[in-house]
Amino acid sequence: MAKRVLIIATDGFEQSELMEPRKLLEAAGIKTTLASPTPGKIRGWNHGEWGLSVTVDKDIEEVSAEDFDALLLPGGQMNPDVLRMDDRVIELIENFDADGKPIAAICHAPWLLIEADLVHGRTVTGWPSLHTDLENAGADVVDEEVAVDGNLITSRKPEDIPAFTEALIEALEAADEEIDEETGEETHDGTEVDEIESI
């Protein structure tokens, strides 16, 4: 079954940070769903001005962490600043974390991780102007294209999108390997394991 990634965004999302990871994920056979507190269409921010609009697939009230394998949070200064004031969004993020599912946040999106109280004692990165906020929330902040700490995946800026998306894909693949080990049905390379005959 194809993996499913939930994307949460609203008006003012950084255009490249939603559209490019989504394109890469879908090219890898991963299904994406865009949810938002804003119905209909939401408009991106691109190079200092309003950009393209995208159609929202689901209202934020219609999605649940249990229906997805990972969460993707695009940046853009306006987008996460609005979302972090929405209790429904923060609860969803908390639920993904409680389930141990990958949460990928880029640019200004780590603001949402702060609001959900997920960064204390974790190694993360983000847009430079967020570093003090992250440190004040107890995070170990690094200046790297992608930081992975447990189920948290964070990146700094649009130029990091390839590494950011690859880290999310790898996290989803790693989750598959863990399921294989638990069921004993196949190994990480897809080789079938002999079933133990019942006595």
Keywords:
three-stranded mixed β-sheet; 33% helix; 6 helices; 199 residues; 24% strand; alpha/beta; seven-stranded mixed β-sheet; single chain
Would you summarize the structure shown here?
By secondary structure, the protein is of the alpha/beta class. The chain contains six helices and twelve strands.
Explain how this protein is built:
It is a single chain. The protein contains six helices and twelve strands. It has helices at about 15-25, 80-85, 85-100, 110-115, 130-135, 160-185; strands spanning about 5-10, 15, 30-35, 40-45, 50-55, 60, 70-75, 105, 125, 140, 145-150, 150-155. The chain has a seven-stranded mixed β-sheet, sandwiched between helices. It has a three-stranded mixed β-sheet with strand order 2-4-5. Strands 9-10 form a two-stranded parallel ribbon.
